Amino acid sequence: MIEWLLLAAAAVALLYQSAALAASAVFFLRTRLAPARPPAVLPPISILKPVYGLDPQLEEAVASHLRLDYPEYELLIGFQRADDPAIPVLERLLAQHPQAQARIEIIGTGAPNAKTGVLDGLSRKARHDVLVINDADIVVSPGYLKTLVAGLHQPGAGVVTCLYRARASSLAGCFEALGVASDFMPSALVAPFAGVREFGFGSTLCFRRADLDAIGGFGAFDMYIADDYQLASRIVALGRRAVFADTPVTTYFADPGWRAVWRHQLRWARTIRFSRPGGFAGMPVTHAGLWALANLACGNVGAAAALWLARCVMGAFAGFAVLGHWPALIAAPLIPLWDLFAFAVWAAAWCGRTVWWRGRRIRLGSQGRIVERHPAAEKNA
To answer: For residue 360, what pLDDT band results from cuts at 50, 70 and 90?
Structure first.
């Protein structure tokens, strides 16, 4: 009986891997053969970038935003405190690019999610009607804004988000980056095929000010930890579409140890659990490596081999061909091992409702609301 149940689980997992490979191939071919075209007249854009602390990739990330191939845009960099250690570094950087329309703003906020509080202040100071927000460590290519406008110009589009690849130099960080490229990003590409219409990542969100105003501004979701998902889902609820930009961006995992990777992944998992409980419950379907090993242990060698191979092929293609994450190609045979780690995170996510975020332990309520914050001195959380 157990053998047949494991074979059934393997079949479902194999079906998911096939769907993820197909979704990745569709995205790859579309962006190469029929990329989205920006409008003839490019609208001016305001980029809102909230920053907290001096992360290793911050200077490179901000510098990439000062060299964009776009006729008119401004960059607003927001801090919660005037004594943030990143401010002198960025002031020197901006002084080296006097031609850029970029400035630093200090936005005091008492919002439970301070990021949305800073974004709310920046949005009020922004001059343009097309807004782009992204995380502090996001590195972009010169054609970044043209790619976003091309996505926003598609019929019915209300919010554009970007796939992303991660870089790291620690072993734990590289393992997490491999998981992002071979698991999390492919699952995002499958989501629209499964009927999921609302999706958005902190890597990039591009939208119109009119739609932001229609959902109540950033203040409408400053009680939520998953502010990127909340913004995208509320704009989609207006009858708009969420779309992926053709080009991924790059983020950086600041050389975390295994404990920090565990906390990071557990925060993501519990956030998904409270934001989208139905989708979270079905996540083990994606853990092909787990079902491959379980079938191997029961003697289903053929099923185990087929599932392991399918997982390696899908992860390598999505990671390398779609995202340009070359370690996914080199480490393809090890990709199924990520699924064992991901399953452990998934199981642990059911056993509590607190997460570590910016050195604080936060208690989550329904739909991912922040209900309590505890100061903590621990780092790398």
So the answer is: confident
Distance of alpha carbon 336 from the chain centroid: 21
Rounded to an integer, what distance in angstroms lies between the CA atom of residue 301 and that of residue 230? 43
Same domain, 225 and 155: yes
Q: Which domain holds residue 202?
A: 36-256
Is the domain of 273 the same as that of 336?
Answer: yes
In Å, the largest CA–CA distance within the chain is: 71
- Whether residues 155 and 13 share a domain: the answer is no
- Answer yes or no: is pLDDT of 300 > 70: yes
> Which of 205, 223, 256 is a domain's end point?
256
pLDDT value at residue 365: 86
Whether residues 79 and 144 share a domain: the answer is yes
Domain identity same for 264 and 159: no
pLDDT at 374: 55
pTM reported for the whole predicted model: 0.92
Q: DSSP 3-state helix, strand, coil percentages of the chain (rounded to 5)?
A: 50, 15, 30
Which helix (H) or strand (E) is 33 found in, with range? helix 2-33
What pLDDT, in 10s, does the model give residues 23-73? 999 999 999 999 999 999 999 999 999 999 988 889 999 999 999 999 999
The size of the chain, in residues, is 381
Per-position DSSP letters for 174-215, written without gaps between them = HHHHHHIIIIIHHHHHHGGGGT-----BTTBEEEEHHHHHHT
